[in-house]
Amino acid sequence: MNCEKIVQNQLDFYNAHNLEGFISTYSDDITIYNLIDNTVMLKGKETLKEKYYERFEVLKVHAELVNRIVIGNKVIDHEHVTGLISDEIVKAVAIYEIEDSLIKRVWFLFE
After folding, report:
1. CATH number at residue 100
2. Of 5, 7, 71, 87, whose CA is between 20 and 30 Å from 106?
3. Cβ-based burial of 58 (10 A; exposed 0-12, middle 13-18, buried ≥19)
């Protein structure tokens, strides 16, 4: 499966609030970083599941893809996310790194 398809599946599951599908696109040892200072925001699939449960079940988040760039095993998405902050659109950039057909690392930048 190609990298772009993996990330698109992840985005589709995100917008459908399908937690099990969303989690299935990630490696067991997924690490998510803040792009600004490279600090770890989240590590491990179980932590990912816990964090996104609220986003899906309570906040009902939605991400609109604005632009996508694919370079090798990296997929860079520019998104407009609703639901994270009441009545606001959060502009985000996510850099997904794919290994063994799963998302292994993600770097986020938020405006």
Report:
1. 3.10.450.50
2. 87
3. exposed
User: pLDDT tier at 86 (50, 70, 90 boundaries)?
Assistant: confident
- Tokens linked to 26: 């990630």
Q: Which residues form the domain of 19?
A: 3-110
Would you say 76 and 93 are in contact if contact means Cβ atoms under 8 Å apart? yes
Domains in the chain: how many in total? 1
- Maximum separation of any 2 CA atoms in the chain, in Å: 38
The owner of tokens 């772009």 is 4
Give CA–CA dist 72/75, Å, rounded.
8
Q: Name the pairing type of β-strands 26-34 and 40-43.
A: antiparallel
Strands (DSSP E) contained in the chain are 26-34, 40-43, 62-71, 74-82, 89-99, 102-110
Q: Give dist(CA 23, CA 10) in Å, integer.
A: 8
Q: Which residues pair with 108 in a beta bridge?
A: 34, 94
Angle at alpha carbon of residue 104, lines to 100 and 56, rounded to 5°: 115
